Amino acid sequence: MNQYEHKIISLVLNEMAFEGAIKHFHEAPPDLPVELFEDLKAIGIPGRYDGNIEDYRYVDIEFDNDKSVFENCYGQLRTIRNNIVHANKAYRPDTPERLNDLLDWAQGFIHSVYQSNSALAKRAAEIKAALRIENF
């Protein structure tokens, strides 16, 4: 497995663990620095693929002050994951540099969640351990 593949698998499996911690165990979002959101905004907005036009619709994301930094970033993490998992990027791929920047941002976000030592991070780690995917 190369580094690129590892980043994609890590993104998919950790997003799944975060979803489980949130939806099934109702863990509260960790406190994360707002710079995570600002870093993603600087990379460029992860567009949502529209099958009707067979292209991406890009929207300018703004920080929602009614949500935590985690919630603001997690929504964008899911968009990045969806674009990769649903293979939309096969039709209109990002440049290798941009895709690498998005995957690096995703890894930074994931790392920040686990570094928060929050209940959500602990639960996500437990989920991964139970599924024997803790190496991601």
Distance between the amino and carboxyl termini: 12 Å
Whole-number radius of gyration? Answer: 15 Å
Average of per-residue pLDDT values: 90
Mind summarizing the main beta sheet?
2 strands, antiparallel
Strand order of the largest sheet: 1-2
**Proportion of residues in helical segments:** 55-70%
Structural class: mainly alpha
Strand content: under 5%
Number of helices: 5
Strand tally, please? Answer: 2
How would you spell out the order of helices and strands? HHEEHHH
General shape: globular
Query: What is the subunit organization of this protein?
Result: single chain
Helices, strands, pairings?
Elements: H1 3-23, H2 35-43, E1 48-50, E2 55-57, H3 69-85, H4 96-115, H5 119-130
Antiparallel strand pairs: 1-2
Helix pairs in contact: 1-3, 1-4, 1-5, 2-4, 3-4
Short summary:
The protein has 136 residues and is mainly alpha-helical. The protein has helices spanning 3-23, 35-43, 69-85, 96-115, 119-130; strands at residues 48-50, 55-57.
Walk me through the structure.
This protein has 136 residues and is mainly alpha-helical. 58% of the residues lie in helices and 4% in strands. The protein is built from five helices and two strands. It has helices at 3-23, 35-43, 69-85, 96-115, 119-130; strands at 48-50, 55-57. A two-stranded antiparallel ribbon has the order 1-2. A hairpin with a 4-residue loop joins β1 (48-50) and β2. α1 (3-23) crosses α3 and α1 (3-23) crosses α5 (119-130). The longest helix is centred in the first third of the chain and has 21 residues, at 3-23. The two termini are 12 Å apart. The mean pLDDT is 90.
